[in-house]
Amino acid sequence: MLTLSFDDNRLLSLLCGEHDENLAVLEHRLNVDITPRGNRLAVRGGDSGRNAARDVLMALYNRARRGLDITKGEVEGAIRMREAQETNVPGGAIRTRRKLVMPRTPTQSSYIEAIRKHELVFGIGPAGTGKTYLAVACAAEALMNGEVDRIVLSRPAVEAGERLGFLPGDMKEKVDPYLRPLYDALYDMMPASLVAKGIAENQIEIAPLAFMRGRTLSSAFIILDEAQNTTPQQMKMFLTRLGEGSRMVVTGDPTQVDLPSGVSSGLSDAVSVLHGVSGVASVGFNNSDIVRHALVGRIVAAYDKKAPKPKK
Length: 312
Hints:
By secondary structure, the chain is of the alpha/beta class. The protein has two domains: 2-87, 2-Layer Sandwich (Ribosomal Protein S8, Chain: A, domain 1), CATH 3.30.1370.10; 94-306, P-loop containing nucleotide triphosphate hydrolases (Rossmann fold). It is 43% helix and 17% strand. The chain is built from eleven helices and eleven strands. It comes from Aestuariivirga litoralis.
């Protein structure tokens, strides 16, 4: 048995979670039993499980000391990062105006590291793996630290196409629904007043892909989301917008292409064409990296299992 002592009962309560739900996650994932006893936690189980539980509990307790939330998602993330320590996976926290964003999986760590080291990074994988969220966090951090002068966030509005004219409102009102996930991520990283000020002063730009043509984006952190819905021509156009002092992150899920039948995806094409090019990195996520509700991972896995096997 391993006994851990904590000097602040209030923080220990946050660590355990409501009705000890965080401890229940640890017990299930690490195959241990954890019993609260006043300001102590008694941990029973095999050596590896006890040691892992100790490291995760102390990491989460230190997180609570810093005034950060401890959700079941953070518990899962701490467990995954503990597992990654044995493989020496690189990566670190992203500090933004509103929060400290921690990687929750080894792939997320590698992704953050790649973004910090390369001018162009492709983040490829299923929904819920944090591809866009972490890219926006890195952009917010870079702007806060003065590494870039502005943030440019873009998405293709594939479903709108020629039908934009039939939608009510001006052009901004027509395309904003397609860009909403980028707004949501940005508001999670920065106070609403700073986001509004940045947009008003053109320090933050959120625009559909079509608006990028003919521009050169210098000293900017540029993100293209849902890139699987670009054509090869659109992708080439976007990638060649990269100017001096800029960084670019391109995210997408090759299994969720909404292009018309017979039209190739620019994301898969670009990853293939640029393989091995200096300054370019590609990070692949899979179902084990999904950090939304646990059911999302099972849903994706079920659909993947049903999908037809590619012909050889």
